[in-house]
Amino acid sequence: MKSTNKNLFPIFEDIIQRKDKENLLNQNSKVIWLTGMSGSGKTTIAKGLEKYLFSNGIMNQILDGDNIRVGLNKNLSFSEIDRTENIRRIAEVSKLFLNAGIVTINCFVSPLNNMRELAKEIIGKQDFIEIYVNTSLEKCKERDVKGLYKKALNGEIKNFTGIGSNYETPKNPDLEINTTDKSVNESIEELSKFILPKIKK
Question: Is 0.70 surpassed by the pTM of this model?
Answer without folding.
Answer: yes
